[in-house]
Queue: 3 jobs
Job 1
Amino acid sequence: MSAVQGVSFADIALRAIFFAVILGVTYVINFVFGKIVMRAIGKRSRNSAYEISRIGGIVIWTVGILSALPILGASDIVVAIVLLLIGAFLIIVTKDFTSNWFAGQMIKTIAPFRVGDWIKTSGSYGRVTKIESLYTILVTPDNETVVIPNSKLTSDLIVDRTTSGSLKVPIELEIDPSVEFRQLTRAVAGIVSQLGEYLSASSRESEPEIYVVSQEFDRARVRIVLKIDNPAREQEVASEFRKRFASLGLSPRRASAIEEESRSG
């Protein structure tokens, strides 16, 4: 039998068969691994199952190819170079996976927010419906689903607008600086009692939350914090509160009225 550079054709054929067998076994292992992952994790988190299956598949194929290269007669240097190239590829491919996974564990451990909370980020606002290992899912007031990578949440400013199951509705108003705080409290409490059907039980039963934001010569800015159970009525409640507050005559006086009063004084 003829030979090529000291290697017989029978030896080449045998090596090719072993190489094909290893690749076939690798394919089967990868297929079974994907099925097991999807069945074990897919029901709870399909996204996480897909990512784990994808990364696991890359590792399985890497091991299979590295195991097959020596059979083809590849030298140790070639195997080392291939290993380095595959390692660099794995680092690039798994970068997002690892960062999102670790961020997900941090969110679950520290719990800056929980399922059911209404949170606001730099680009999204909605109710948290699911916290997965890699992603957090929100549903916006318009009933749109937003999937946010966990690594983005851990590096972004998050405002949790939920307190004891209710949604906070901050309303900033300008009032005349001559208005006493007690008078303002009574006025806000009166409006709260009128809007009782819109507000949560905690807002109806407790003192209204009022904060002085700033104060100037001709006006003061205050923030009223209401709590509602239905986030879809947030804009309606804020608009109705502003309308009723405006009718009380506590807003800043016009500049002309202030000048006229100062002249008469």
Job 2
Amino acid sequence: MMDIFYSSTRGHNKKVTASQAILQGLAEDGGLFVPEKIPAFENTLEEFAQMSYQETAYAVMKLLLTDFTEEELKYCINSAYDSKFDTKEIAPMAEAEGVYYLELFHGRTIAFKDMALSILPYLMTTAAKKNQVKNEIVILTATSGDTGKAALAGFADVPGTRILVFYPKNGVSPIQERQMVTQKGANTRVVGIYGNFDDAQSGVKKLFADQELAAQMEEKGFQFSSANSINIGRLVPQIVYYVYAYAQLLKEERISAGEAINVVVPTGNFGNILAAYYAKNMGLPIAKLICASNDNKVLYDFFSTGTYDRNREFVLTTSPSMDILISSNLERLIYRVAGEDAQKNAELMKALNQEGKYEITAQMKEKLADFYGNYATGAECADKLKELYENTGYIIDTHTAVAAVVCDKYKNATKDAAKTVIASTASPFKFTRSVMTAIDASYDSMDDFALVDELSRIGNVAVPAAIEEIRTAPVLHDIQCDKTEMKEAVKTFLGL
């Protein structure tokens, strides 16, 4: 098996191992780490069909994390994908209206971020040992609602780490906020910023690039890393569940080996659908990668026109985890369709930073043929959620509803009859008010936890432990700051 090294999307001058890329999070030039080659699967699809989730994870991840030993990688996988997930399958599938919903929300914080953030702390602490890191690792993360809690839960009280999460104070659901501000752990801190997610994400990237701050931290024995999807240690584990989903369809004889499926992903920061793209490039038979946007339809416009333009009104929607205008992981795709030309990619990212937009060439746009983009309005999502519940009894969250609407639009436009998997990215219990008022407007008079119990009753689904534990949990984090004060928040947290 060949060694895979990683380089920055903005420069080829420095190659690093997978463990070094995971530790750094972001490349020194501000680019994202990408593998120099995307390896092909070593197993047949029929072999994958006989594997457990943990076995699938090892078969996929060993190809990209080549400097981890078998023992190290299996330790990370088996520690992550254990009883903290409430289903034996880790990522089960539900069929409704002829579509397969890949349920990625059975982890500790009931969102798909758990799939990668359950393993990232193990990958990171193993990587620190491999590279003789003596500093304390400070996980610095921006969240649009789900990454924050999943990262906090993963890193809470992990020796040798601290974690600081910034979230938009008025840009997450009440349940999402309560999940974060009640987080236990002596090494955790949560800060609400007066701004949106893009402000939080841009602020975190600036802090990573701040050489003066890096020197101060080094002097005190700290170094930054990231739990955002910019970290390759987040992206690689996400490839696994697409392989597992295909293998389960094959095992259940819903598809034949080699039959191509379509995958629909509700998309904000572009990491989740990029993982599906990597899976396709490794050999998974995926025909169309369907990118579903909400009213912040910057990605839909990009796939339609070839111009990425964040100069627009930021819309707060009922799918807040997708309320994003700068989709960071798209840079990895741009680098690839630019022929892995780091200089060209760097020029485009500079234009995005300075002018708020860039335009790709016609030749690059041709290489996006695997993708289809569309978007769903809030009203369309509410209608779909209600229709699906009334027709089948199956209740989805607002982000999954975005994907379901776009799936319908794609099928109506193309008449494509391929089997389709929708990435169901969060539990409806995380967005109870939006979900329940879509089903019946009269629910709006109930408080958030009464809605939780009513959702459990009408959906005939037990209330997840993640919700039960925050009903009466005390608020432990009550810090807010302006988006311009994030550096001071970091320095206060670390005592600099």
Job 3
Amino acid sequence: MCDYALPWLVLYAVPGLGPAAYCALIEHFETPENILSQSPQSLCSVPGIGPSTAQSICCNRDWAWARDQVARVQGMGIQICTLSDPLYPTILTQIYAPPSLLFVKGDIRVCHQPTISIVGSRSYTAYGRETAHRLGGDLARSGITVVSGMAVGIDAHAHRGALEHGVTATVLGSSLDRP
């Protein structure tokens, strides 16, 4: 079992704790374990953490749910990558409020290579389809990982072109079991 992910998942499930607040807490206390050991008063010392959020952190610690999630994703061949994991994509840490957890299927190391995102319309012309396919292939041939949302349309054609000559990475705004 991925015990290192458990405290991250416990915090992830706290109602009212969004990504910005989660990041502020990690910046201040360094680890989820440290956050979970704090009193509500101590949590409120972090800018952006009010009494209701602090109380929610202290009262909503669902370890059983976290263990269930770890078991569930392991059964699906999915890895949990936390913000403190060396495999967490460095470039993703540069955005405002990066996700504290990534659920990964495949080799996340492709995101450590040079990457470029290709996104576009779901409605496209023949020219758009051919251009996305060719661009994806040319970039992959050059050693660049094409990153997209895997949506129908331009995104999918860029992925297809890239897969003919290299690798792609897909970022979903949903769970891996229900894309």
